[in-house]
């Protein structure tokens, strides 16, 4: 939150990192309220952000320990795998090297080369026009009300047929 501390503002932390980087790296601030689309974050959003933050902090700590030169006590790397983005990729939270993202992104349109969600459009059109309401029957299978009624009618017909074949009525008396 921008107002979490009177002294440690986003601007102060950005300037501190830029100063400490001594030209080796730069830092830019990104206030989530400026890029957030929609309403306030849900508990899921907050939990997910916490998990991503922890994963990022642990990853940075591991990379620092891997890339520290014990003789000079400096951190240096030239590996492309240390410039990564953390995000959800095919239901897995993982780090993706920037070089891989550059290959998969159309920078002119600022979109991925493969837009998997476009394959869902025909299904969405069908669902948007379909007027039926769906519900789960006793077996857990989702059906339309019409199918459910037909299924119940078929079940009742089977019971009636069994009663006729057994020669007994509903109360167990002979027919």
Question: Which terms summarize this structure?
Answer:
175 residues, two-stranded antiparallel ribbon, 44% helix, alpha+beta, two-stranded antiparallel sheet, 8 strands
Descriptive report:
With 175 residues, this protein is an alpha+beta fold. It contains six helices and eight strands. It has helices at 10-21, 32-35, 43-66, 98-103, 121-129, 145-166; strands spanning 68-69, 74-75, 84-89, 92-97, 105-106, 111-112, 135-136, 142-143. The strands form four sheets. The protein has a two-stranded antiparallel sheet. The protein has a two-stranded antiparallel ribbon with strand order 3-4. A hairpin with a 4-residue loop joins strand 5 and strand 6. The model has no long low-confidence stretch (mean pLDDT 76).
Outline, from the CA principal axes?
Answer: elongated
Share of residues in strands: 5-15%
Low-confidence stretches: none
Terminus-to-terminus distance: 78 Å
Look at the helices and sheets and give the structural class: alpha+beta
Percent range of helical residues: 40-55%
Rg over CA atoms, rounded to whole Å, is 30 Å
Mean pLDDT: 76
SSE sequence, one letter per element: HHHEEEEHEEHEEH
What is the strand tally? 8
What spatial order of strands do you see in the largest sheet?
Answer: 1-2
Major sheet summary line: 2 strands, antiparallel
Number of helical regions: 6
């Amino acid at each position: 939150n921008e107002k979490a501390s009177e002294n440690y503002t986003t601007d102060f932390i950005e300037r501190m990192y830029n100063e400490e980087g001594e030209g080796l790296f730069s830092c830019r601030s990104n206030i989530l309220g400026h890029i957030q689309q929609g309403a306030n974050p849900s508990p899921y959003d907050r939990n997910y952000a916490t998990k991503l933050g922890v994963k990022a902090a642990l990853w940075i700590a591991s990379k620092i320990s891997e890339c520290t030169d014990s003789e000079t006590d400096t951190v240096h790397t030239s590996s492309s795998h240390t410039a990564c983005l953390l995000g959800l990729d095919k239901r897995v939270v993982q780090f993706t090297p920037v070089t891989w993202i550059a290959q998969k992104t159309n920078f002119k349109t600022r979109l991925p080369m493969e837009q998997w969600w476009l394959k869902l459009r025909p299904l969405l059109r069908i669902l948007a026009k379909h007027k039926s309401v769906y519900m789960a029957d006793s077996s857990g299978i989702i059906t339309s009300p019409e199918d459910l009624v037909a299924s119940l009618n078929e079940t009742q017909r089977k019971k009636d047929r069994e009663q006729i074949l057994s020669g007994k009525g509903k109360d167990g008396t002979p027919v």
